[in-house]
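Much of what follows relies on a compact textual record of a protein's fold. A record is reproduced here so that you can trace the correspondence yourselves:
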Amino acid sequence: MDPVDRPDPIIELYKKHVDRSLLRENLKLTPEQRLLKMMDLQRFAAELQRAGRAARKRP
């Protein structure tokens, strides 16, 4: 087997821990839908950061 054709053992190790069903579901979305989903996630992350900062300021 040519070294180029041989799977990289490190990549194979990581592939075990990837939920491919999530990748497939995401690829069913249009590029615009994926961007909107990502923007929603960014808004959610920003809100979590704000809530965390507010919680740390409380006595």
User: Anything to note?
Assistant: Residues 9-57 form one domain.
